[in-house]
Every structure is written in structure tokens, then in C-alpha cells.
Design a protein that fits this description.
It contains 24 helices and five strands. It has 489 residues and is mainly alpha-helical.
Length: 489
Amino acid sequence: MQENDHLSDIKTENQTIIDNKELSFFEALIPVVILISLLAINIFIIEDQEWFGAYTNQIILIIGGGIAAAVGLFNKVTFPTMLKEVWENLKSVFVPIMILFLVGALAGTWLVSGVIPAMVYYGLQVLSPEIFLPASVIIAAIISIATGSSWTTSATVGIALVGIGTALGIHPGMIAGAVISGAYFGDKMSPLSDTTNLAPAMAGTDLFTHIKYMSITTVPTIIITLVVFAVISLNIDTSGTADVSNLLSSIDDTFHISPWLFAVPVAVVALILLKTKPLLALVSGIVLAIIFAFLFQGAILDSLADSRVSAIVRSIFTDTAIVTDNEKLNDLFSAGGMEGMLWTIFLIICAMVFGGIMDGIGALARITKALLSVATSVFGLFASTVASCIGLNIVASDQYLAIVIPGKMFKQAYEDKGLAPQNLSRTLEDSGTVTSVLIPWNTCGAYQSGVLGVGVGEYIFYAVFNWLSPFTTLLFAALNLKIKMLKNK
């Protein structure tokens, strides 16, 4: 008999969920309560978030993981069991971490090649403050539907839109909220999206039934989102428009601007549409940007380093700042390269350590089961699912776990209530997929804030689609609107 044979494994396609029968609900909550308390103190009380220096949130996550490990040891969970789950979590974010490094390099090379300045230059002439925010939602939604990836959308058009909007004098949090709202709408509705395929697989329905049923709550939510951003845009102080001619002149004087520079982002998007692996598509974007930098921006490269090759290398790995005669553009035309992504990557790694230990000791399954036990009505079942998904986005720090664990745990309960499986798959997406980006230490929140250069705290209020989606799905459940029942019930 093994030391941990009191642990039972609930196998899924991509994840092992450990159910520790000896762990009580209150014990499972101990690491969560301490983690959230420390994070709250750090964010709201400690000045400038310098409790443990620049990496305060990361250290708090490790402290939470240590407390979770102590709870696990008290309940006879072995270190190998916990370490195994941590390792599985870390393996699951290897590709996202590589993508983050490449996005850092992409931002640097797209800056020195003139790609980002060209996007800002032409975008300033097309997008005005009066339409900018709703237009950003629509543009991000189209790209995300086409690519099936909110991450790719942010790393391409998202960066450009933040640059254009900032130059127009619009608050970066508003722009990021609009981009993220559109990107996650497209991510949810695209058959190419991994989460859109994962949710129906966990619930036991097919992809296109899931997408069709999900549109019942998703379309009204995106319409409300567009209305909100249209109202915000009409009430924005548009004083930034007076500076557009000066901004255009400064960009034109600093960079060699040409429509040919758009060949780089177009090529990257085309590769993704052709289902090229994201890593290869991003590397291609970096290589093309390097070529275009030598072709179009020789003067810029000469101003950055002793040699043009050194300037390129610097843009890939470290900070790059291009000085213009406009202070607003000086802030905009800077990039951190791969080095600039280290804070975000460390945050993701620490979050995966905490989530892995919580899974390894059986705390995630215990918390989810507790929510399931109070779901006595149909609405209670929907509410418990939403709470479970959001809770796991906070605790497990990963949207995939926030879909997989509730999907497996709640599947039988939906069947027992006579509910068709697409009810579960829709709720998983309405609460699991979209709220992940609202959690600073979640992989999605860390990624989006790192790529867009806007903190979660700055955009969370403006990510209207993301925080409104769980309320929409609960409203439909409460009013019994479009709730599909099993035919044999």
C-alpha cells in the first residue's frame, strides 16, 4: 500500500485532478485566505507595492504555496505528489513562457524596424477619439475570431491600438479594456480557439452546438460592451486631436514610414491563419522585422548602438528607447525586449507553483465539491459553476484548470437536473475563459498586462465584456431564458 493511497485521481484528457478525502473544506481554504489577504495588503496598504521589492506578488504566491504544502503534509500528502503536480503545471506553461519571450523580442524589433510607428502613424489618420474605443473592440474581435487567439490579437493589433490611442490622449486602461473585450469575444466564438474546444469536451457536447448556444449570452454581452464604449468615446476629452499633426510630423521625421512595413504584421497574421505554430509565426515576425529594420531604419539603428547588428541584438534582449522631439512619443516608442517580460514570466511560474501544490494536496477538488454540494436548484447549480470557475482562476491561476476541474466535477450534476450539456459548456466559457484576464497573477492576466504594458488594475473596470459575461449567464439562468433541457427529462 502506498503512503498516499487515500488520494483518488479523477482522470481528464489533459489534467489529473486530485481528490484528497482527508482534507477538510476549511483546511483547503487556509492557503487561499492567507494568499488573498497578503495580496490585498500589498495592493491596498503597502505603498508603491514595495513590500518585498519589485517581485512582491511573486514572493506572496510562493508563501501561499509553502502554506499549502504545510497543510498537505499535515494531511499525509507526500512531497513527491505535490511536486508532480507543480511539474505538470510548469510543463503546461512552457509554450506560453516561450511566447512571452518572443513577444518581448517582437515588440523590440517591431519598434526599431518602424512597424509599430507605422501602425501608429496611419492609425492616427484613420481612428479618431470619437470612434476609437468601439472600433478597437471590433478590430480585436475580428482578428481574434480569425486567429482563435486572444493572446495573438494582443501581441499584434493590441500593441498598435494601445500606441495609437495613447497618442490620441486616451487613457491606456480604456484602450486595453476595449482590446481585451474584443479579443476575448473573438476567442470565445472562434472554432480555432483552444478553450472553445476544451469547454464542450469537458461538458460532453460538440463544438458547433457549443458555439451556437454560447452566442445566446455572448452576443448581448458584446452589444452592451460596444454601447458602453461608444458612450465613453463620446465623452472623452478629445484635446489629443489637436496634437495629431505634430505627432505625425515627429514620427515622420524620426522614422522612414512606408506602407511596406505592414507586410510584417500581415505575414504573421497570415501564418497564424494558415495554422502555423505560434512560436514559428512569432519567430518569422521577428526575422522579417530585422530585415525591414536594415532596409528602412538604418539611421535609427545607427543612433542606438555602435553597430547596426548590436542595435538589433539590443532590441531583442533588452531595453530600447527611441528619442523623438515629442515627449508623448518618447514614452510610447520604448520596449523592454525579452528582459522586459521577466517580471511577467516569474509571476506565471510562481502562480503555477501555488496552483500545483493546491491541486496536489486536493484543495482545488475540495473547494469545487463544496460549491457543488450547495447547488440544490437549477440557478444554484449555475451560480456554483460560475463561482467555481472564477475561484479557480484566482486560486489555480490558470484558465484551463478553471474549465477542466468544474467541467468534470459538475457534469453529472447538470445531467441529474435534466440540463443539456451545452448549459455547462457555455457557463464554463462565460465565467472561466473570460475572467482569467481579470486576475493579475493568472497566466492570462499576467500575459495581457505584460504585452499591452497596462496593469490589470488599470484595465479591469474597462474590460466590460469580461466581467459582464458571468452576470449575463446568471441572469439568463435566473430568468430561465434559453435553458436547454435534455429531451428524455
